[in-house]
Structures are given as structure tokens and as C-alpha cells.
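A reminder before we start the practical. When you read a complex entry, don't treat the lines as separate problems. The point of joint prediction is that each chain is placed relative to the others, so the output describes one connected object in space. Small molecules and nucleic acid strands, if listed, are placed in the same frame. In the example below there are two entries. Take a minute to note the order of the lines before looking further.
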Amino acid sequence: GAVVSQHPSWVICKSGTSVKIECRSLDFQATTMFWYRQFPKQSLMLMATSNEGSKATYEQGVEKDKFLINHASLTLSTLTVTSAHPEDSSFYICSASLTSGRETQYFGPGTRLLVL
Amino acid sequence: SQQGEEDPQALSIQEGENATMNCSYKTSINNLQWYRQNSGRGLVHLILIRSNEREKHSGRLRVTLDTSKKSSSLLITASRAADTASYFCATGPGLDTGRRALTFGSGTRLQVQP
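Here is the predicted structure of the whole assembly.
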């Protein structure tokens, strides 16, 4: 099956620093990637939809200047949390889709971010 | 975005028993999917049922879909301790919604006691 990787798997940083998370589709080309955030014991909330070569589409309430998304190639999307604060501590999960995204998405293992 | 609701929120059963989880949603869908998540880990895709299907089986899993009631159920038969995890339903939006991403339900935390 299709494999999606994320790096790093966990990160601890100081408040005010920026953190970059990579999402890679290892054995397929993903036209669309999605970024989700999950707080403890809660469900996944979509943050943004990322399309290769174009600007990401952000969900309502998600600050695009704080969560920078770059989908530079068909196998790589990055999420940068700028000027991270403790409330940004969460589990960030990406997924990749071969086509429109309405069908099966392949999820990465997630990145746990802790901002001190 | 709207989320589906799942019930129960938490379920504890003995090994060998069946576990049933329900999911309700609000918008038109193209398909409904169930995912499993072990604590602190990524999601594993379990099964996808399309909007024109009513029931689907995969090993010990049985999924039903009732589009008139906007609901789905996931049945795990003969549960094992290794089935302990959180289970999420997710809807793939209909073509008329203009939305592409999945919308996740609130999840059911299943605990299977050995």
C-alpha cells in the first residue's frame, strides 16, 4: 500500500521558535496533501489542503501566516509553525491522496509538537 | 467544518465479545471510511463504503451505511486485546459540496479487556 512518512516524529521547542514538519509520499505522487491537527483525546481537525504548485487552502480559523504550507513537489509538503506558542502543542498529521481526496487518504504517522 | 458524531464515546468489552460503534453525519457524502488509531500514533485505514453500498465486510469487520438516516456502524466481531484503539469514521464529501478533505467523527475509544 501507499506509504506516507513524516519528519520529525516528535519535537520539543521553546516558545517563539519556528518548527518545520515534512510530509512525504514515498511510493506515489500525491496531487493533494492534507494537514490535520489533533489535540489529546479529540478528533482530527483539518487545517489546510495543499496542492502541488499552488497556494494552500486554509480552513476557517486557521492562520495562514502562522501555519505556512509549501507543497513544492508531488511527493513533499511542509508545514512550518511560525513563532510557536504552548497552545500550538498538538499532534500534527498529514495525509496524501492520489486524486481528489474524496477517496482513500494515506496518513503519515504524525508529529508530536511540544512548545515549552 | 462540521463533524460527525460517534457513539459511544468510550466502550469497554471483554475479549471475544463483539464491539459496535455508530457514526452519524450531516452533509451529502461520496463515501464513508473507518480508521483506527492506536494511542499517539497515526491512522490506519480499515474500510471504505461508498454511498451506493449498504454493507461491507473485511475480515472481522462489518460496516453498514444508511444514507437516509445519515448513519453508519462498525462491528468488530470476536474482539481481541489488540483491537484496543480509537476508531474514527470519516466522510468523503459529495461532489456537489466542493469540498475534498475528509471530515472526521469524534471517535470511539475501544478498550478490550483480556
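Discuss with your neighbour: The mean pLDDT of chain B is 90. What might explain this?
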